Amino acid sequence: MLIGSGTRLALEDVQALVNAIAATGGDIRAASPLYEERRKPIVEKLLSAAARSAGWYEHFEENSFHRGVCARIYRPLWPGGSRPIGFNLSEFRQAV
Length: 96
Prior knowledge:
2 domains
């Protein structure tokens, strides 16, 4: 999931549930399917985005464009500071 999405989703869920309960005159059993109908498309959209993001990170090392970029970003975190390095995710994980 995207950073901060969990908090936002929880707050939107509360608001949608309150609105569904109000729309059904306080009938919780009737509000439940209304709530689900309204929230399901939003949750599915976020889950789809999270799956795409996870897939990108799972294949991070295969993306040659980002190797140089990440090497420059993470260079200060490597033992020895700013010495020249080639990006290697396994090596980075061990070093940090």
